[in-house]
Write a structure and sequence with these properties.
The protein has 354 residues and is an all-alpha fold. It has one domain. The protein contains 19 helices and no strands. The two termini are 39 Å apart.
Length: 354
């Protein structure tokens, strides 16, 4: 496990794969596996961070406030119909969930594994800590590792499932004017709708939209900047170290961990593929007005998925600018992933008890 922790640090420093989280996770993994250090024993500082920030769900919620402060949903508000791709982008959750059930995982373990397909690290952490905290280490590492590899997966899947004619499709983006009132109402409306449909996910969506509302209000710039920078950075650091503390050898080096990484690959690949296939359907219905490449952006891997879709389109035609449409779809994917997590948190325990 010390070697694995060192490998995570190598990926963060040398390869730049999710360094903000993989570096502290790697270092925490090294610390917790040094014999007789007892950092996860009662009174150990890693145990304290774990109980204070993860068991109580404080760390994921604080990170969502920071993410909300960074988000600009303006491009999505100009094209709200692109939210339909956010629904398609969550199909990977249920495909991985079903495969996990077939492999012998318990219903709640399967839900925690399936949520990797949301491509949203904090959501995966929050759901896993609620249902199966013993799997927190492998699920978190799996989610963030594959998020760093989104372009590696997205490019071949996109090219395999689309034709050159489809990839050449241009989507003009005309800026629409809308009032500041709409920007302020949007986070409030999304919070209310999500809260009534899936109340158990309200801490996630509420925190995300609180951060966005602070940004859009323009009257609490100091709070918004603090949430976007200091709060998000400190929480990410402590979260990474605490997760590293859960990666003790006897917990991590198991067949179940290997299966989780395999299921994570299925979740990510099927999420991207289902989004593209849905994009092809929309392409057909609109008679070639929508580029199917943006279908892969209905996930929460922001802005990597949107930027990658744009670059694939430009490979075929250097003058084809899909970026704004792709980023708008990707912003919708962020909301969709949190809604998916909220639904899972609310209804999975009910269904598993039937």
């Amino acid at each position: 496990m010390i070697g694995i922790g060192t490998f995570f640090i190598y990926l963060a420093v040398k390869k730049r794969y999710e360094p903000l989280l993989l570096l502290p996770i790697g270092f925490g993994t090294i610390l917790v596996n040094i014999p007789y250090g007892e950092l996860m024993a009662p009174g150990g500082f890693l145990k304290f961070l774990y109980e204070f920030g993860i068991i109580t769900d404080i760390f994921p919620i604080l990170i969502f406030i920071g993410i909300g402060s960074m988000c600009d949903f303006g491009v999505l508000l100009e094209r709200p119909w692109l939210l339909i791709f956010a629904a398609a982008g969550q199909i990977g959750i249920f495909i991985a969930l079903l495969v996990a059930l077939l492999l012998g995982f318990t219903p709640l373990e399967s839900v925690a594994v399936g949520i990797i397909g949301a491509m949203d690290g904090p959501t995966a952490i929050y759901v896993t800590s609620k249902f199966t905290p013993e799997l927190l280490g492998p699920i978190t590492v799996c989610a963030y590792s594959y998020m760093a590899m989104v372009p590696i997966l997205q490019i071949p899947i996109s090219k395999a499932l689309t034709t050159r004619k489809e990839r050449l499709t241009r989507m003009p983006y005309k800026r629409e004017s809308y009032s500041k009132t709409i920007r302020l109402l949007f986070p409030l409306i999304v919070t209310l709708i999500t809260g009534f449909i899936a109340p158990k996910g309200l801490p996630l969506m509420g925190a995300l939209m609180l951060g966005n509302f602070m940004k859009e209000s323009g009257v609490v710039e100091r709070l918004s900047k603090t949430a976007e920078n200091e709060l998000a950075n400190i929480t990410t650091l402590l979260l990474g170290i605490a997760i590293g503390g859960t990666m003790e050898a006897e917990r991590f080096l198991t067949i179940k961990t290997l299966l989780i990484f395999g299921l994570g690959l299925i979740a990510f690949s099927s999420a991207l593929a289902s989004g593209i296939l849905f994009g092809k359907l929309v392409y057909f219905v609109t008679r070639g007005k929508v580029n199917p490449l943006i279908g892969a952006c209905g996930v929460s891997a922001f802005p990597m998925a949107g930027r990658t879709a744009h670059l694939i389109g430009r490979e075929e035609d250097p003058d084809n600018w899909l970026l704004l449409n792709a980023i708008a779809t990707n912003a919708g994917g962020q909301i969709g992933s949190v809604i998916a997590g909220a639904i899972v948190l609310t209804y999975a325990p009910i269904l598993s008890g039937l």
